[in-house]
Amino acid sequence: MPDWGEIFAAPAMQGLQPNPDFLALLPELWRNGVRRVLDAGCGVGRQLLPLARHGFQVVGVDREAAALRLLKENLAAATLPAALLLADLQRLPLAPGRFELVVSINVINHGNAATFRDYCRELDRVLKPGGRLFINVSPRAFAAKVRLPQTRELEPGTLVDIATPDGDLVHHFPTPEELQAQFPGYEARRLETILTPIPFMGNVELPQLIFWGRKGQGPGIRGQGLETKLV
User: Fold this and answer.
1) Which of 223, 229, 131 is nearest to 180 (CA)?
2) Which CATH code fits 4-9+16-137+174-215?
3) CA 38 to CA 19: how far, in whole Å?
4) CA angle 46-137-185, nearest 5°?
């Protein structure tokens, strides 16, 4: 199976539209003074390019050099500014509290449960108190749809050999409660599982989990518990 660098380099992938749930938030974020944004797992710029066009000061991080090369070319062609970093999301080379908004879409599934927790820890670390966090991730309900006869469950929610383009790699699929538990000091404004067309799987509709929250200003501030619903 191809790796993510090859998947993103495919012409069909480069024309993907931004995540509509995230895109809808940009005008309000701009009005509220949000400027410094991290796109964690930016790929070829599906979210980063509209952020840059909107005027946000964007840093894009990805571990796939091929994807970043394509993104750099696209930014130059559009004369848009953005800083790009080749790095692993488990160890972001960025100062704590640097960003007012952190976005990560279809990234933090890649690895086992410990890797998933590392990703979440780093996203939290680089977000300033009061900052906003948007995560879109494939949840446990997605995992149930992509099992194959040869699928192996390495630990609860962690599968390998599944029916996705990168299915030979290890994936962790959190429950909504597991995801929210990684960000206990956050006001959870949205925690919802929805059915979404998956572009790299022929636009078949599968469950996706959205977490939209605001980081507390200090310790001991817990987010609101929201009922998860599948639409």
Assistant:
1) 223
2) 3.40.50.150
3) 15
4) 110
Q: How many residues does the chain have?
A: 231
Say if residues 40 and 61 touch (Cβ distance below 8 Å): yes
- pLDDT value at 202 more than 90: no
DSSP bridge partners of 193: 209, 230
Q: What's the pLDDT at 17?
A: 86
- As given in the structure block, the two tokens for residue 120 are 């979440």
Residues 207 and 137: their CA atoms lie apart, in Å, by: 9
Q: Give me the residue label for tokens 């929805």.
A: 194
Interatomic CA distance for residues 226 and 218, integer angstroms: 21
Domain boundaries, the chain: 4-9+16-137+174-215
Question: Residue 67: left (phi > 0), alpha (psi -120 to 50), or beta?
Answer: alpha
Give the pTM.
0.91
| CA 172 remoteness from chain centre | 13
- CB 124, CB 211: distance < 8 Å: no
**């999301």: which residue's tokens?**
89
pLDDT of residue 223: 34
